[in-house]
Automatic annotation (TrEMBL), chains A, B:
Gene behind this protein: sfp4
Listed name of the protein: Sulfate transporter 3.1
Keyword Membrane annotated: yes
Molecular functions (GO terms): secondary active sulfate transmembrane transporter activity
GO CC term, one of those recorded: membrane
Highest taxon of source: Eukaryota
Residue intervals passing through the bilayer: 128-144, 156-178, 190-208, 237-258, 265-286, 318-339, 397-415, 422-444, 456-479
Pfam families: STAS, Sulfate_transp
Coarse class of the protein's main subcellular location: membrane
Lineage, uppermost ranks: Eukaryota, Viridiplantae, Streptophyta, Embryophyta, Tracheophyta
Membrane topology listed for this record: Multi-pass membrane protein
Amino acid sequence: MGGSADANGAGSVRVPVPPARPFLDTFRGNLKETFFPDDPFRGVVRERGAGRRTVAALRYFFPFLEWAPAYALSTFKSDLIAGITIASLAIPQGISYAKLANLPPVLGLYSSFVPPLVYALMGSSKDLAVGTVAVASLLISSMLGSEVSPTENPVLYLHLAFTATFFAGVFQASLGLLRLGFIVDLLSHATIVGFMAGAATVVCLQQLKGMLGLVHFTTSTDVVSVMESVFSQTHQWRWESVLLGCGFLFFLLVTRFISKRRPKLFWISAAAPLTSVVLGSVLVYLTHAENHGIEVIGYLKKGLNPPSVTSLQFSPPYMMLALKTGIITGVIALAEGIAVGRSFAMFKNYHIDGNKEMIAIGTMNVLGSLTSCYLTTGPFSRSAVNYNAGCRTAMSNVVMSLAVMVTLLFLTPLFHYTPLVVLSAIIVSAMLGLVDFGAALHLWRVDKVDFCVCAGAYLGVVFGSVEVGLVVAVAVSLLRVLLFVARPRTTVLGNIPGTMVYRRMDQYAAAQTVPGVLVLRVDAPVYFANASYLRERISRWIDDEEERTKSQGEMGVRYVVLDMGAIGSIDTSGTSMLDELNKSLDRRGMQIVLANPGSEIMKKLDSSKVLEQIGHEWVFPTVGEAVASCDYVLHSHKPGMAKDSAAAHESMV
Amino acid sequence: MGGSADANGAGSVRVPVPPARPFLDTFRGNLKETFFPDDPFRGVVRERGAGRRTVAALRYFFPFLEWAPAYALSTFKSDLIAGITIASLAIPQGISYAKLANLPPVLGLYSSFVPPLVYALMGSSKDLAVGTVAVASLLISSMLGSEVSPTENPVLYLHLAFTATFFAGVFQASLGLLRLGFIVDLLSHATIVGFMAGAATVVCLQQLKGMLGLVHFTTSTDVVSVMESVFSQTHQWRWESVLLGCGFLFFLLVTRFISKRRPKLFWISAAAPLTSVVLGSVLVYLTHAENHGIEVIGYLKKGLNPPSVTSLQFSPPYMMLALKTGIITGVIALAEGIAVGRSFAMFKNYHIDGNKEMIAIGTMNVLGSLTSCYLTTGPFSRSAVNYNAGCRTAMSNVVMSLAVMVTLLFLTPLFHYTPLVVLSAIIVSAMLGLVDFGAALHLWRVDKVDFCVCAGAYLGVVFGSVEVGLVVAVAVSLLRVLLFVARPRTTVLGNIPGTMVYRRMDQYAAAQTVPGVLVLRVDAPVYFANASYLRERISRWIDDEEERTKSQGEMGVRYVVLDMGAIGSIDTSGTSMLDELNKSLDRRGMQIVLANPGSEIMKKLDSSKVLEQIGHEWVFPTVGEAVASCDYVLHSHKPGMAKDSAAAHESMV
């Protein structure tokens, strides 16, 4: 150590106080960084002339304009195979999930016809396969069902489902238009893992009704109510139903297992649901099992989606219910859709604009709600099949949509004898794929708090309700962020011998303290929430160091160097805290020294006059220089005169 | 630049992966740092033997045991003067605030008798003067008054006030016992400035009733309702009342002005309220003004506090109201008490333990609620007088308490003719001291967000209600913290020529980029809330840099160095983000390099296998070394071979 500051480190470079910028400039800059971090209109703004800009803007909102003109036959061949594969999955799954939502089964087919077409025009993902999802279906049935019975008042229930879908779409599109996509980020990966597993558990439990052939069942979704409902009517269990259900479930699981082992055989598990439906229907038709306790789908209306504009309910009594359902299901569906889109985009190395995706998914739901569809998004399982089947563009969604159209126009009578228990088996087998033990284990190994978030979401969904699970998980996640800010880590830094570098003493064994100087580092912004904590914690560090040096007969603390490199931001409580710290150190005969403050910090320290109080000469760009200056004063003057030597020090810098 | 890493910086020191610690150890450590950051029981644990530890624990909970044994006569002389001074302020203020809370005036005297005695035993501040406060009084009257009318059902209202005080005390003490003192920190300085100014405005508006001599008045506190109420009955205004009120207000403001100009004359403004009361009473007695529209206090019961244990209401209909009122008023009162205690402790350079103070204030309110007192805390104005009068220990509270006792026993009849309008004048003059324009201006100059918090609190209180103001201010404050985490700043670092130091390019004009290397710094923890933002923002920095280098014909980006020094924490979404970033850079033929990650970060990168993916050889303790290594590879091999040269690089380190 030792030597003048000029010989080492950044030398004569001082920490500048940034020039004052007009308030509106700063404000506009912050606004842009907050809402347009990805600068989405770069491509549009760069073009010249109104015409070219319009074309660029159209291209921005309708990505198919980019790939459609150059669409080749070879690409279509890939998309055709992928589209037919996902259609064979979409048809039975659509019917199953519509049953799960307590809606007419044909709605599942309607929902696989219009929304995929809209997404093909507006979506920017090449791999997303559009369709209904189990979790949102369950949410619709539990939220709407709690106030309107789907059996006693099916028409109102249906209309509310359309209205909720409409609100979900409007909410999703507004999030995108208002650039509030980051709200979806509040659902962290850990939350989604726990939430999905919980939802899968709850959905599987609901299938006990179909599997056991029960007629009466609880409307609650929590595990306690369901178990009570199941075991209170053991005499109602139908062995025919159980046998058929377990048989098909086994078949589906085996095909899943095979496809998982050999990804090339993806089509085995993709085709299995449709195969089960066909087998089940033939079996029932031949044995007339519908008369022996096996419920069947029954009559399915032929024809394409009827319009449903007039069904939307915008009048007071039920509108709030639909609005609430729409917002919650909308966020959940969006989170799944965006996550799926992003994952596959990463595999294929292209970019997905989250806010644009929200507009696409929102529009597809708004248009869906006007054409008898209920909530759709990009389900993971179907998109994975799409990806594995080798889809190249969103054209595979168009192919799926056309296949569903053909089904709606000509093939609906074939589903008359399809047994409900097969649909239950399809749902259960799909749900088991949502439980990701590996991910939960990974969370536990890497981050215990994230594991708590995950477990909170799971237990909340399973023992409370879907909303409870979400609230618990988001609350724990936010609490963690707040706790990070409220209890920032402070550490003592030591010198790495032979260098000007200072690193954490508890991390680097080689780091050594400098006599008379205590170097502290704060690892978070200094805000109202932690200002008084930091004041006390820093005093305690100083007391501890004083005690240690006294017991070892070393020089006491004369300088407290604060490494501010990790202090990203500061508010007025923070500047007051520094002011008070400076004064109290002053009374103890110590000098505060600041190292490496950022420009925002310098600006605020300057405008709050704290910089004046501390003295600009005690601010250094690096810890090394700060300590070198202290050291210089300590060694060229008698100890105890630290405070008086500021003048001498100034002449040196 | 250039040269091998060994020649510069930290040389052969590697960034270590901290050894795994048992989960419970880490957990216990975190718990201690979160809830016992000040290590309060250090003094107790250090003692040996059960007896000595008991004594130390008693001393911890009853700080008077520390100063009482050595209490000297000279100290008592100071405390006596201070005690009598604050008593002369406490008596008129106590009566005024009790009127403000719509409670019997004598309660203000009761509340200045028992609680100060309790605080003298348990409190650790030497300067806090205990008493009732205007804001909490107003809150009690507006919250309780919204459901129970103080004029129609005065007994129930009174009992609810005791119950609310009881709950407030229990809540305050529990916060302290459960070490949750940081909840009070959520009320930032900015919030309190705005809130206090708003409350002062509202309280002053309420005094229009007394000043104008109105009989009917709105129960709402917002400015619109009050103005409507005042101007709808202009014919009811009493000139006698207005004249008397304005006269005394002028007198009080003049004395305040004098004392502010010459702090030595503090006793002038301290004695002014009592003088006003005496003058006003004599005036009314002589002129029989009580028959000419001047309302007087009337009969005040003689005698000490009656017990009120049996008055507490723990039965359903009103208990929730009392509980809610208690919690809100309790937090507000606590915030004021703690802030006052801390400020004066700082002036005199002694330490205040926030959690211990909460226990003291809580206990004083619980015992107060059992002896006919309502909510008390440490008001700023009274404590400032106490401090200026030269108090030395909490004995000044005992003296004040005894003076109030004498008043209660013998002097209450003297207040019979005290006009209410004088009390209003006393309240208004005290309230004007709560409006701190200077502080608001300071907030605007230093931090616009804090100013918004302050303005939000003010406008919320004035146009909505006290609760609305609080909710707005706390919500804006928390939003700021979340936004800081959700939109962390990322900046490009450049080399300060002639050194190994890297600093922000936008802050240091001297900083220069290194060809082929992009150094980025992230200023916040990497959490679920910002992981996807960071991924996109970092890609944009790289795209921008690629574009710039291409247009200037320089070498493209081959290495992306992430300065992780300011990343205080990371969760699993963060580690996944780094993993994805690494993979996508890999595909673009770039290498990610990490500089200066903390031990927690290293641990998580290791346990999530991301470190393995990136390669431990690409992690450096300083940015300087990281860039030096990249530079070495770039200059000793052909460009474009960066990825292949990892082996060569390894041999160098």
